[in-house]
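Lab manual, section 2.4: Encoding a predicted structure.

Procedure: take the sequence of the chain (152 residues), apply the prediction step described in section 2.3, and record the output as structure tokens. A sample record is shown.
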Amino acid sequence: MATTTNLLRLLAPEDRDRLLKFAVEVNFPSGARIFEEGSKADRFWTIITGLVALDVHVPGRRAAAVDAIGHGELLGWSWLVPPHTWQLGAEAHGPVHALEFDAAAVRALIEEDPVLGLAITRCVAIVVGNRLQSTRTRLLDLYGPAGSGPRP
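Recorded output:
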């Protein structure tokens, strides 16, 4: 991705500390499905180490990998936007160590503190834009007519 989505680094130290109260460290083994497209989005992650591939369901075909994220990046945005269902799937490519956040608790924090809510929402908006562009580009590469991919 061209734009950083390191939520923790973008927040003021006191806001970062407040958000980290809702985090637990988790590990995913290589090949683990972290979430499935269409399932309930009740948490999100910041990747500490490892690589996560994002994929989209393509009817009649295998899921198409559309992006990969790693160190410091935010995994998941669907937790913030109703109906809170994942728009992509995610799989660990190699061992992944991450901070996992409880989405309902963070949404409550956002409601209590509009300034913090705006900061988090801006970061998530960057993620959504990047993922949309990556997905579009990758699907054009895979299934579009020759020459329909990104322009130089």
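Check your result against the sample. The chain is about 35% helix and 25% strand.
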